[in-house]
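Action item from last meeting closed. Structure (212 res):
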């Protein structure tokens, strides 16, 4: 998908978004999605290959890696980004439905046609609820994933050395994580941008409810 098609797809969302929604959209697609695609994937591409333990016991390194990395950061971020952007597609579909409905009535009634939605660009009726639901859903997804990351990776950080004593390891072995500092920086960046997105969603939802 080229950028022109992408821009056309997001046009309905921008049209009906508030200023907070436009900031959120820019933050997600510039600072989260692009950083994920351009940089983060490369940083974590060697996480298993360069996870080194000071033992030659077959299976020990794989077991220890699975214990300390139950789910990859990259896969969790990919799932998070998919779930966070899905509500925007729901808004796009609702806007498309409204436009198709207007077109059908225009063809049927001809000169006697009166628009059902006289204020294009305004969130009225079902679209208001769809938009509000999308904000609550996006904020909930981000909060849930922040919690998941915190449980899997305490304080969102990776240590330089981890000690593993799971079978089939013969004793307590030291395992070394590849580029932990760089990974911690990217993790912190993604966590901070996620928190900012949650705050923007809450502010926008409060604004919508207060304005209504």
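Sequence:
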């Amino acid at each position: 998908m080229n950028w022109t098609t992408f821009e056309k797809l997001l046009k309905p969302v921008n049209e009906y978004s508030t200023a907070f929604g436009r900031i959120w959209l820019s933050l997600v697609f510039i600072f989260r999605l692009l950083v994920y695609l351009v940089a983060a994937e490369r940083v974590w591409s060697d996480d298993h290959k360069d996870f080194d333990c000071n033992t030659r016991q077959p299976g020990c390194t794989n077991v220890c890696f699975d214990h300390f990395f139950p789910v990859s950061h990259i896969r969790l971020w990919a799932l998070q980004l998919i779930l966070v952007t899905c509500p925007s597609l729901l808004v796009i579909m609702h806007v498309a439905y409204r436009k198709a409905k207007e077109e059908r009535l225009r063809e049927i009634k001809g000169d006697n046609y009166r628009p059902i939605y006289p204020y294009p660009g305004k969130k009225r009726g079902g679209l208001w609820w769809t938009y509000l639901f999308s904000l609550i859903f996006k904020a909930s997804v981000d909060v849930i994933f922040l919690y998941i990351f915190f449980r899997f990776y305490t304080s969102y950080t990776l240590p330089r050395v981890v000690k593993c004593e799971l079978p089939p390891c013969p004793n307590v072995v030291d395992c070394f994580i590849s580029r932990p500092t760089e990974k911690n920086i990217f993790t912190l960046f993604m966590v901070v941008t996620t928190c900012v997105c949650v705050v923007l969603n809450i502010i926008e939802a409060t604004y919508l409810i207060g304005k209504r």
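Note appended to the action item: The chain is about 70% helix and 5% strand.
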